Amino acid sequence: MFLVSGGVTKFAKAHPEMDFRLMVKRACDQALAEVPNLTADRIDGTRISYFSDHFTRQLKAASMVQDYLGMNPKGSVRIEWGGATGGECFQAAYEAVASGRMDVCLAAGFETMSRVATWKGNEFIALASDTNYDFPLGGFYTGYYALMVVRHMYEYLRRSKFANVKDEREAQRRAIAEGQRVMSWVSVKNHRNALHNPYAQYPKRLTVDDVLRSEMISYPLTREQICTMSDGAATAILCTEPVARELTDRPVRVTGVGTGTDTMRLADRPFGRVPLYPHERAADYAKLDYPGVHSFRAGRAAGLEAYRMAGLTDPIHQLDFIELHDAYASSEIQTYEDLGLCKYGEGYDFTLSGAPFLKHLEYGLPVPEAGKIPVNPSGGLIACGHPVGATGLMQAVFALWQLQGSVAKHFGDPTLQIANAKRGAIHSHAGTGSAVTVSILERGF
User: Fold this and answer.
1) Is the dihedral of CA 173, 176, 180, 185 positive or negative?
2) The model's pTM
3) Could you say which of 100, 114, 292, 424 would form a disulfide bridge with 14 (CB–CB 3.0 to 4.6 Å)?
4) CATH number of 2-117
């Protein structure tokens, strides 16, 4: 099953000149222009994603998109899965084709988050937590992620690098300070990458000090370590192999898909054994309380399924890049571990090694292992923005262009092109890790 084309609007704080239908239409037109032999009448149906009716102030907005694209009376399904909405839309389109139901399926996603004030938008997003339990306690997501990363820092920095500090409060203070510093490296990386991505909302050249001095949003997370609400749309066209061979000589095969879930309420998450990747050993985690609130079990489950389907046994060496759901700099580091790029507990050192940085860019940081496994070469959510229903599809489109070797064509700049990229992963994440998708994409027939 193949991904043959995609389109993206610029992600922006607001697109007042476009409603959601026109944004999707422009992304769809871009995708169709890439494959001239494919006309709209050959698309068998659609999967359309957006997160919240609250932002559009319109129920059944997917039906309005279907109409605006001229797709009636073909079949369509609206997809919603929190922050992973776009990633699940991509997999729903994959399943529509892989099942034999369709030869060609259009996946389209959007969000228009600028239509409400920021505080109100945060409230709408918070409704994706348990409204009987978490939400009444002030459950904005920055608070949840701050809580989770503080526990992550305690589990992996306090107990290792600062184990000899006897005063508990001082030890934890040092652990958090070190964690904040390393999270700032992620922000520097992603904003710096985005300087070469014309679709990104916040391209910036930052220093670690710039990140640390930015406004504190929810301790220890600062403004530059958090993604923002956005307007934007993205589309992806998936099809069978015979159709792909007719349409393009540079298709991308979808070789693995995986999903994982976890409890909505953090307090309900159990403790047990770590599900292992083939390159890991149970002895590595004999003393780890897993997943607790410091790791995303859903991410591990999605990775296990996708890797197994794609035949991956050692992702750090078998993937050329990952577009990863970095709604927070903290969650990018946590996800390095969930996806097996490093062991649990090694995410901070993995960041400092430079492994997830691009080799040929200057970040103002010592990154000796840069290029080992570039993560978010596009700039990720932190720099590109996060119009929720479009984000996972945006990742698919950027991955497509990497694997086609067409980044220079689409970005007008070759800087972010990873040389000879053959295989990549896209990762989409919802809630506090309550739903995650991972998809593996490979170049060519």
Assistant:
1) positive
2) 0.96
3) 114
4) 3.40.47.10
